Amino acid sequence: MNLETALLDVRRMSEADRMTVEAGTPADDLMERAGAAVAEAIARRWSARSTAVLCGPGNNGGDGFVTARKLSEAGWPVRVALLGPRDSLTGDARRHAERWQGTTEPLSPAALRGVSLVVDALFGSGLSRAIGGSAADTLAAAAAAKVPVVSIDVPSGVMGDTGEALGAVPAALTVTFCRKKPGHVLLPGRLLCGDVVVADIGTPATVIEQVRPDAFENDPRLWYSELPRPDCAGNKHTRGHALIYGGYPMTGAARMAARSAARSGAGLTTVAVPEVALAIYATTLTSVMVAPLAAPEDFDRLLDGRRFSAVLIGPGAGTGKGTRDRVLAVLKAGHPTVLDADALTSFQADPSSLDRAIGENCVLTPHDGEFSRLFDARGDKLTRTRAAARRSGAVLVLKGGDTVIAAPSGEAIVNTNAPPTLATAGSGDVLSGIIVGLLAQGMTPFLAAAAAVWMHGAAAAEFGPGLLAEDLPDLLPHVARRLHDVHASGTASPR
Domain for residue 494, yes or no? Predict the structure, then answer.
């Protein structure tokens, strides 16, 4: 995996700092670089103005003292407010507090009087409880006064590993170091961070490798090299054949999924439908083939052999025994499979029977309601999705504004490019169609799911307001073209 997109949890970040110090960089220097990076990020965004730096009793507060000193040296009017007595500071934080030549006042809302910018250096990502007292009061006063807040590491009260918010207020800018943390990308933390700047303070790349990240922010650098591309020597058969089960009377979901599979590059796409629905599907799908099912056993015969390279079942399939039986038949056939919507809900009475049937190359794409019907996992979204992937043996795509893609091995990817316009009926059916289209072309389930989720978000962003799910399939070629152009030019990943 591309380590530039790695997310370091609090334990790994602490370990990276420790290893960096052991490699020869004094901890005092790391704190100096961190505070300097914050001051530089502030100066790039704002002109000199009256600023209050709110310092906590730990290393986050030490970063704040460096920030205050650097801004003051650059001519900014700066005041520092400290939580707790100054003589309670220890280690590097104490040394940097002693280098601050200005006054230090007790932390209270009064410290904000007359200021135009606030630097939140109270608590870092290691906080594990809600903030309260003068810290909560002062941050609340800054938010009420609409004074821009710059947070060091994370907004105080945002949990670094989970994104949970316990008393945090929104920041305009968050400056973190080395790599983002899960709390920067998971909701609601992501919404409280504002713009996130990741500053390089000298952590060696070898250290990132040694702490073995297992979570990543979704980015084309993770999967672009595996993204299927047409070959001049190939044909429609070498580009894969996706099969989608199309239900009745809810026919729109499967039709959107089929068009998405085709638009994502599958050489052939077939929708298998009850015979009563043949006319509906056949008159609305042109390049997508429609196979009528006159009897239940026709679907089993269709699955026999290796004609299809990936299968999707669930969108519009209906819930109950019929769908459950078809899902088990798909899984028994051994094709790479995507299970969505009704295919998941049909197992809510006996989730373990689905777990037992799942083999390799299976992707489940629940939203929160479908997830809760199948899994009793507890905790934050990253933890729950990983637990479900381990239990089921499938790649889990837990959808939402911060969709998490987790592999049974524990590796996980958090998506951040989905606009709120994706909260519209049918968008999940489009996503499952993109996934099956990529699977049909031979992409591995974990990376196919990550790529599909990112492309889904990029397509929605391309359209803008007023998005309907049926708009998405035709936007996929634009997304693919932009991905190719960016990759060919060697510039940064598109957002």
Answer: no
Q: Which of 57, 27, 60 is nearest to 150 (CA)?
A: 60
Query: Taking residues 237-258, what's their average pLDDT?
Result: 95
332 domain-assigned: yes
238 and 161 together in one domain: no
pLDDT digits (tens, 9 = 90+) for 455-489: 999 999 999 999 999 999 999 999 999 999 887 77
Note down the domain range covering 480. 220-489
Let me know if 322 is exposed, middle or buried by CB neighbors in 10 A (0-12, 13-18, 19+): middle
pLDDT of residue 230: 83
pLDDT of residue 284: 96
CA 288 to each of CA 111, 196, 239, 284, 339: distance values in angstroms, whole numbers, following the listed order? 66, 43, 14, 9, 20
- Establish if 495 belongs to a structural domain: no
Give the bridge partners for 121, in sequence order: 55
Same domain, residue pair 48 and 163: yes
Question: How open is the CA angle 436-309-486, to the nearest 5 degrees?
Answer: 50
178 phi-psi bin (left φ>0, alpha ψ -120 to 50, beta other): left
Task: Give yes or no for residue 66 having a pLDDT over 60.
Answer: yes
- Whichever domain contains 450, its CATH number is 3.40.1190.20
Does the structure show a pLDDT above 80 at 58? Answer: yes
Q: Would you tell me the crossing angle of helices 252-263 and 427-440 to the nearest 10 degrees?
A: 40
Question: Residue 234: its pLDDT value, please?
Answer: 84
The domain tally of the chain equals 2
* Average pLDDT, integer, range 95-108: 96
